[in-house]
Design brief:
heterotrimer, A mainly alpha, B mainly alpha, C alpha/beta, A: mainly alpha, MetI-like fold, 9 helices, B: mainly alpha, 8 helices, membrane (chain A), amino-acid transport (chain A), ArtM/GltK/GlnP/TcyL/YhdX-like (chain A)
């Protein structure tokens, strides 16, 4: 593979980051309200959230992306491949982040809530001062691990024409017929991107053991 | 415009045919990938750096690279060294490698979760290390890892749809094909989604139930 | 307590005469967990300045009784009175009632439950600021004063994870005291500690008792019950089986159930 092709490959990187980062942001944002509905005292709301999360997660990403891109895209208002990917992966990330938040909430020892109650902290301050800071710490390594998963799932955006790393790899493969080195390079680049995120996960995990009551 | 019920009835057959292919690939991938994961887990735990390091590199690459890229690497890349695999064989190879690398970490943490005292007790009873693994450690580790492994099996089924990109006539390819000829993308893709909802939603609840049950 | 000298007419009576008004008064308290009756018709008075020990086998309901006092568990029936406040359990407890009740009660847990993401000083200051609305300076002054009392001035800036179990429990006591409670509740405060570390906690509790604090202590430490508490309550199967001056209950239990328990505890 010539340097020219390698540079062409790298032009896909911003798209890979945009889809991954954008979807993660959407998920981190909307996942929290979804968690609150998931933990609602109203049974019907709670079950709606449970089913919604299960359904979103049970449909393969590629089907989601097609569903959004082709059915909405060919319908009333056209949607760009990048927007379709962001909506699709944002939706999936929302369901997954809600579950990650829920895991973190459960992981924080129930004694913490009791201690806050016994100290007469209001429900808001129990959440805000005691539970949430610990939840965020528990979340970080799990969310970092999930971000790596999302980075790799985001490669699926290439199937609807988002010109990301995988798309460029396939494009160059078709031009050069050198799939082994081209797709090999693409794979290695993904590994290299995920290494620092994995490192963050490992470091934060060691840190939380000290500052969270699990 | 709009699909009629008779259209839907016509689509069921090709979609089902595609879905059977997804299930077949999932089954073979589990059959090859899970034992592969166990072997990798043992290799990574070896003391010798000549064994440990290559195993770790394989696991990191297999986990770090997207399954989609692995698929295309095998399907489009192998012909470069005169090894042309069918799309079915490519799917099996790529997904099995990906599965082995992923599950090796699940199995490794399962092995690590078996209390040290169990190994020591087996050692004190003069078990060989193979017997200690076979009769004492592995059964307990398998029990600990099984909810995560079942959860991962659902993900394998979902990832078989990636074979769309290597021209395998599985369900996503079938749906895309019908969609591009009829332009009824929404109903055909929704129907495809239903296949997965019917299988994966109950399966994920089952896994959740197992998870809660296996908690101490 | 002059009760100590009196002859006990009924060993299972834990209430004072009606004309005396105690600081904590429970009447006919019951608690159900589904089908299971954990507390059966508990009536109990605790006088101001009194130290009451509650002992009994595990599952006897002693921790539940303590948790019912500050409504971590809500009693199913009966009434509870702390100071001027009375709560009847014929209706779900209102938030206002719960707040007013807990304002008078400090709680110390078996597992300390310090907030691990805050320093020791923040652990003691945050509740003061959030609940009592104290200014930061004021809260810190109170916290430092209390840390001195429990002998941990040097730990103010440390995180709980860098403190021993005994130190964490003394911090937890300081945190509860910072809110000026009238009654301190202790739920097996030394059970999670090595005997040596438990001792430093017990000595803090001892000086607290000396200073006249009203205390209700669920404990396994018979020596603490005997030496520090004015009265000991023996519970089994959700009922008060015996109550009276600590030495009497522990040394000369009247009922067969209590005799069996103390024999086992004392290894006789």
């Amino acid at each position: 593979m010539t340097p020219d092709y390698f540079l062409l490959l790298l032009t896909g990187l911003p798209y890979t980051f945009a889809v991954t980062g954008g979807a993660l942001l959407i998920g981190a944002l909307f996942g929290f309200p979804l968690l609150l509905v998931r933990r609602s005292k109203v049974t019907i709301l709670r079950w709606t959230a449970v089913m919604l999360i299960a359904v979103i997660r049970s449909i393969p990403p590629i089907v989601w992306i097609f569903l959004i891109f082709f059915s909405i895209g060919t319908g009333v208002f056209p949607i760009s491949p990048l927007s379709a990917a962001l909506v699709g992966f944002g939706l999936i990330a929302t369901a997954n982040m809600a579950e990650i938040y829920r895991g973190a909430l459960i992981a924080v020892h129930h004694g913490q809530t009791e201690a806050a109650q016994a100290l007469n902290l209001s429900p808001f301050h129990t959440m805000w001062d005691v539970i949430l800071p610990q939840m965020v710490r528990v979340c970080l390594p799990v969310a970092a691990t999930y971000a790596i998963g999302l980075l790799k799932d985001a490669a699926i955006a290439s199937t609807i024409g988002v010109p990301d790393l995988t798309y460029q790899g396939r494009h160059i493969t078709q031009m050069t017929l050198q799939g082994l080195s081209v797709m090999g390079s693409v794979g290695i680049i993904y590994v290299l991107i995920s290494l620092p995120i994995a490192w963050i996960a490992r470091v934060t995990e060691a840190h939380i053991r000290k500052t969270v009551s699990l | 415009m709009g699909a009629t019920w008779s259209d839907v009835a016509d689509w069921i057959e090709p979609l089902s045919r595609g879905f059977v292919l997804n299930l077949e690939i999932t089954f073979i991938t589990i059959l090859l990938g899970f034992p592969g994961g166990f072997v990798l887990a043992l290799l990574v735990e070896r003391r010798s750096p000549w064994v440990r390091w290559p195993a770790m590199v394989i696991v990191e690459i297999g986990r770090g690279a997207p399954a989609l890229v692995l698929l295309q690497f095998v399907y489009f890349g192998f012909p470069q060294i005169d090894l042309t695999l069918s799309s079915f064989a490519s799917a099996i190879v790529a997904l099995s490698v990906s599965t082995a690398c992923y599950t090796s970490e699940i199995i490794r943490s399962g092995l690590a979760a078996v209390p040290k005292g169990q190994k020591e007790a087996a050692e004190a009873l003069n078990f060989s290390s193979a017997d200690s693994m076979r009769f004492v450690v592995f059964p307990q580790a398998a029990k600990i890892s099984s909810p995560a492994m079942m959860g991962f099996s659902i993900l394998i089924l979902q990832s078989t749809t990636l074979c769309f990109t290597i021209a395998l006539p599985e369900i996503a390819s079938q749906a895309y094909e019908i969609g591009s000829t009829t332009f009824q993308y929404f109903p055909i893709l929704s129907l495809t989604a239903l296949f997965f909802i019917f299988v994966c939603v109950p399966a994920s609840f089952l896994v959740g139930w197992f998870e809660r049950r296996s908690e101490p | 307590m002059d009760q100590a000298a009196s002859v006990r007419p009924d060993p299972s009576t834990a209430t004072l005469p009606e004309d005396v008004s105690p600081l904590v008064r429970m009447r006919h308290l019951c608690k159900w967990f589904g089908e299971h009756e954990v507390l059966r018709d508990i009536s109990l008075d605790v006088d101001s300045g009194e130290v009451l020990a509650i002992v009994g086998p595990s599952g006897s309901g002693k921790s539940t009784l303590l948790r019912c006092i500050n409504l971590l568990e809500e009693p199913s029936a009966g009434s509870l009175n702390v100071g001027e406040l009375t709560v009847e359990f014929d209706h779900p407890v209102k938030r206002r009632e719960r707040k007013a009740l807990r304002q008078q009660l400090g709680m110390v847990f078996q597992s300390f439950n310090l907030f691990p993401h805050m320093t020791v000083l923040e652990n003691i200051c945050l509740p003061q600021r959030r609940v009592l609305g104290r200014k930061r300076d004021e809260a810190e002054a109170v916290a430092k004063d209390l840390l001195e009392k429990v002998g941990l001035t040097d730990k103010a800036a440390a995180f709980p994870s860098n403190c021993s179990g005994g130190q964490q429990q003394r911090i937890a006591i300081a945190r509860a005291l910072a809110l000026d409670p009238r009654v301190m509740l202790f739920d097996e405060p030394t059970s999670a500690l090595d005997p040596e570390l438990g001792l430093e906690v017990l000595s803090v509790m001892f000086s607290l008792a000396q200073s006249g604090m009203t205390m209700i202590v669920v404990t396994h430490e018979m020596s603490f019950a005997e030496k520090v508490s004015d009265r000991t309550l023996f519970m089994a199967e959700g009922k008060i089986v015996e109550a009276g001056p600590s030495a009497d209950v522990i040394r000369r239990p009247q009922s067969e159930r209590a005799r069996r328990f103390f024999r086992a505890v004392n290894g006789l």
